[in-house]
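FAQ: What does the model actually see?

It sees only this:
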Amino acid sequence: MGKSNGLGFWIACAVFLGAMLALTLVMKNEYPFFAGYVILQFIVLATAWNILGGYAGYVNFGTSAFFGLGVYIAVMLFKAIGAPIVVQIAGAALVGAVLGFGVGLLTLRMQGIFFSIATIAVTIIIETCVTNWKFVGGAAGIQLQRPPVMAPFDSYVKMLFFVQAALVVIAVALARYVQGSWIGRGLQALRDDELAAECTGVPTLKLKLLACCLSGALMSAAGAPSAMYLQFANPDSAFNLNYSVSALAMALIGGTAHWIGPILGAILLGVTQQILTVTISSEVNVLILGLMLVLFVVGAPAGLIGLVGFPWKKRGGT
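And it is asked to produce this:
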């Protein structure tokens, strides 16, 4: 059953990437790719958040710190050496993992609200540093000129859309692996009762640091293409707290117990936000996000996966 499920997952990933590539080659209107990029970006962020916030139970409000760091690492690499987008993402992921490790060492002995407040402080510190970093534009921001697009894409937005789709596959595959491995079982044990987990030999600190590194790397990688997507970067938008709130809300609404939960939550809220932006106003997004979060926390604390009840959960599959 495990091998069959694994093969099915990778086939689904290949079909997904093939469909995304086909869309970029067939569809001429670029707006769906602008909107689709944002939805795919939130899938990566929600999935990354869930590795630490869902599996380990450490509520992280520092998503915007890692996202913004990814944006500015990409800007730095592009401005310094003209690095292509793949190198920008790899560099951002590496720095995000290092930051995750550092934040983990400093804060993971904290628990509950103290850990959450500490992650907000990290965002403020990094944003302040970037605001005073003149090489990447400082507080005024920086305008970027996109390089020539690579084949087979005919526009840079379509290429970034496909790149973000590939990041979705990487993020989901990592989350799925973590959930089904000894890492996931250890994280679940420390989430349920950290002291009891330590007494039974679970390496809780090592697991939390690993979760911090994986989560931080994916969040920073998700932010790296954003500068080229907007052709502009400034600290206010890159470190916007909405990224932290949205990632948390999407994971909780979808359900944190299974890797597919953040995907469902990100699709539901991401599509809703894009529709509201076009039809009403982007300011309504925060209101809808808050209302949906309250409704799900009160009415369906297990999220969409708990509300619907997926059959593979009953079989214990991944």
